Amino acid sequence: MTKPGWTHEYEVELPAGSERVWRALTDPAELTRWFAEGVEVEPMPGGKFRFWGRWTYGAPPRERSHQRITRFEPGREIAFEWEIEGVESEVVLVLAQEPAGAAENAANAGSAGSERTRLRLRHKFPAPPAVPHPTELIDDLWRLTLGNLDAHLRGGEGLALPDHTDPNPEIRVSIVIDVPRERVYRALLEPEALNRWIASDAEVEPRVGGRYRYGWRYEVAGRPVEGGPTRILELVENERVVTDWPDYRGDESREVTRVAWILESLGPKKTRVTIVHDGFSRAADASDYPFGWRGFLEKLKGSVLNS
Question: Are residues 111 and 84 in the same domain?
Fold first, then answer.
């Protein structure tokens, strides 16, 4: 059981210099592109840091938004209040410009820009919110939120703004590949092809109910997990592959979601590939899946075009 006085900590490296990141965190016009539908900011200790709308967990209306800045160090640190499920919490965001060597290495590795900033998050609660899986909720909420900040800093492509009022949230991302859909279908079902772009030790029984695994093995909180799908739920040749998707942390008490790969011909040598990931009980549970699936679509495209 989680003890009272819990703090969630998270850290990301962002593809921009600290001044650019600071604007994205404090300028209302920028915040309404990636963080919340409505935002008011008074940049000073005790000043307003109000945010509201569908993109905010709980979807509060403007009149219920009362957050205040608790600490403010221009260019480096901002902290603000956030009531979640009736629990008052404090969010602390601290920026650290990456040293020149790290920025150069990131640029050489193909990053979006040469400047990088490390953002350290601490989200402090007197007690966890009284909802199912509260620690996972806050972790997933920040993975989704900071993934959108990253996408915003890269120009806005790939933003996945959640609708927390949607009773049936889903992730939907697409890509167009200049090959016939038969080739894409093979890349989804042949183990050797899967191992080139998404799997490490793929197993496939190409039938409804058949085994379908990527061979992902990793640890979560020191516990071994076999991640990814386990079986095929639907299969339509050259059109559709649907699999289950158990909880990526290996928690068998969580809902099993679904991932559909939908192939649509746009001509004799062009295919739109759409991923629909659904079955989430709340929009925040989408976590950083939208950005992960977009990355895997790019890997699928590269693999198919080069095979």
Answer: yes
Q: Is the pLDDT of residue 3 over 60?
A: no
Are 140 and 28 contained in the same domain? Answer: yes
Domain total of the chain: 2
pLDDT in tens, 292-303: 999 999 999 999
The answer for 156, left when phi > 0, alpha when psi is -120 to 50, beta otherwise, is left
Is residue 162 in a domain? no
CATH of the domain at 56: 3.30.530.20
Q: Residue 61 carries which side chain, given as an amino acid letter?
A: P
Burial 266-289 (b: 16+ CB within 10 A, else e): eeeeebebebbbeebebbbbbbbb
Could you tell me which residues are beta bridge partners of residue 175? 273
- Tell whether 266 and 143 lie within a shared domain: no
Residue whose C-alpha is closest to residue 232's, from 255, 203, 254:
203
Last residue of a domain, one of 108, 128, 153: 153
Q: Tell me: do 189 and 62 sit in the same domain.
A: no
Please, what is the average pLDDT of the chain?
Answer: 94
Report the pLDDT value the prediction gives residue 307, as an integer from 0 to 100. 87
- Please check whether residues 124 and 193 belong to one and the same domain: no
Contact indicator for 291, 158 with CB cutoff of 8 Å: yes
In whole angstroms, give the CA distance from residue 47 to residue 66: 10
102 three-class SS: helix
Q: Which two structure tokens, joined as six digits, stand for 83? A: 């009531």
CA dist 275 and 269 (Å) reads: 20
The range of the structural domain enclosing residue 198 comes to 170-306
* Statement: residue 2 has pLDDT above 60: no
SS3 91: strand
Least confident of 65-69, 201-205, 220-224: 220-224
Asked if 134 and 222 sit in the same domain, the reply is no
Query: pLDDT, tens digit, for every residue of 161-208?
Result: 999 999 999 999 999 999 999 999 999 999 999 999 999 999 999 999
